[in-house]
Queue: 2 jobs
Job 1
Amino acid sequence: AGQPKLIVVADAEALAQAAAERVVARVVANPGRIAICLTGGSSPKKLYQLLGSEAWRGKIPWDRVHWFIGDERFVPESDPLNNMAVAREIFLDRNAPPGHIHPIPTTAESPDQSAEIYARELQAFYGSDQLDPARPLFDLVLMGAGPDGHTASLFPGYPAVEETTRWVVGVPKANVAPFVPRVSLTLPALASCREMLFEIAGHDKQPILTRLLNGETLPAVRARSNGGTLWLVDQAALPEGIRG
Ligand code: 6PG
């Protein structure tokens, strides 16, 4: 575990560039099968655009990379709120082999059932239903932080945050918009990675980043990789006192 490392960049553009470099570095570091856990929300969109761009797509060995998602809104794939649908449309569908895209299914009867199905898919991919600290599930986990300090769909005070055994859980009610049920990977599943990378950019994030840096025990602070955790932030998100 260990403290997250803070990396400050100029703006959202520089942040997406830095994140794309981390993705490529992780991919290059692993000569075998690679697993990347994507995230939803608006923060990673620039990164996804970059990864699909002419300048970057050639740096990724698409036939060796598998793409998962850390949380999903329980809405059909055709709904613009669907996190994986956004990633697919921006960069995955044009680049990744179809069998390498692993969405959280939202056609199940309930978020709980969808969580169970996805847990089984992750466990089949990993080859075990027990996480081995010596063998991380993911090479890289991308994360964002919401205004209430949530990350993935782990909202402060929710039982999902305290889950210690299940890898994926249903979250019946969101704490912030969009107010649709969610399905989320849990802290232990997300922690099983070589690197966890938070993208936190823009002035809107300043209040929550201030609280996170103060070490409040919010889900976004408790989310730590067993490898290394990086908080990639831009100047606009930094608290006034520590701006460069
Ligand atoms: C989701 C996300 C969530 C997100 C934060 C930040 O499904 O909403 O996975 O954890 O990363 O809420 O969202 P923004 O990037 O939109 O600020």
Job 2
Amino acid sequence: DLKGFIFDLDGVIAGTAQYHGQAWHQLADELGVTWTEELANGLKGVSRMDSLEMILKAGGKENDYTDEQKVAYATKKNDNYLSLIKQLTPADVFPGIKEFLDDLLANGYQISLASASKNAPTILEHLQLASYFTKVVDPATLKEGKPDPEIYTRGAEILGLDPANCAGVEDAAAGVASINGAGETSIGIGTRSELAEADVLFGDTNELTLANIKAQMDK
Ligand code: G16
Ligand code: MG
């Protein structure tokens, strides 16, 4: 039986994924790396430094920069991203998310956050959702990023729950892989072609309700 829900942030709670995309796209242009839909999707849920490595690799430039230069580029992307997310307000919370969170708490479920983003606490403040997420995995303490299971394993741990009693909610293939690897129920938000491995799938956050989840799990 499900007792806890572990949430991704970017692409599940709000549309910050588009700002990550915008900021990486700008950096890719500067590095002379062609920006493609495939590259953009592959970066979803992936940590900051791993994302930079993927971009450099896509352009065959993985050996062109020192670690110091790479950190400088990642910092530049983050500064750009931070200026983009300043405009976030509670109106940017995806449809149905606040209702779902309220419903979970009203029914005694526990919730935690498993975002790879070091900016997650700031974003939650802007969205006025910080009070829902008193349990947040600190991505700075992780050895491995998504798709490794570590972040979702920790998401269950901080709730004091067995992973088998937890569900993770994700918009990225790397995140769904992390949830499945942790032995939790994966709930994907997106398309079947992108999230082939999700146990439960919804096209849109407004379909995310306890009743709809149970209906798909009972199938
Ligand atoms: C998010 C985004 C990724 C981003 C990562 C790290 O993960 O989806 O695109 O690269 O966080 O973010 P930051 O650079 O802000 O630390 P998630 O797990 O919330 O989808
Ligand atoms: Mg995400």
